[in-house]
Fold:
Amino acid sequence: MRMGKAAIVLCLSWLSASCQAGDASISQQYIESNIERLEAAIVRCDSKAAENGMPDSDVFDLLRQYEYEEVRVFLITRSAAMANECQKPHLTDLAHTIGMLEASTAYAEVEDLISSVKPLMYGKETWALKERYLQLPDDMRKNLESIPYFQKPFRDIPIIERLESANGL
Structure:
């Protein structure tokens, strides 16, 4: 459903390294520095998610009150949303840079790089995740969003695995 964080970092690293091969124009250097900052933000936000650990037993009790599939969708989509929120300043910077360069005379110099980066930022999965999240019952979404644990980056897979093991799934 979503591209792994490691895959995104690897792709961004590769793109950044390809820019460094040879003499890079100012526009290439500018977009490369934006890509490097986003890459660092992805790694930093993933570390924050890892540091968040597991929610306490009260949160698990609350999660078990809802349909399993809806909880699973909430965890996956909310985790992605909190990662994006953490990375937002750098995503916004890169989006602005792409838009600015696309409208400039320097676009031809960075067209391949932009074409490689855009699917990572604006893949069809981005809207699909948001749409699934918005389709969840409002009361469930608002109730779970109010829990401090779900207001910062977290890892969804360990929580899903724990719920599945407790339910014998």
Summary: Residues 68-102 form the longest helix (35 residues).
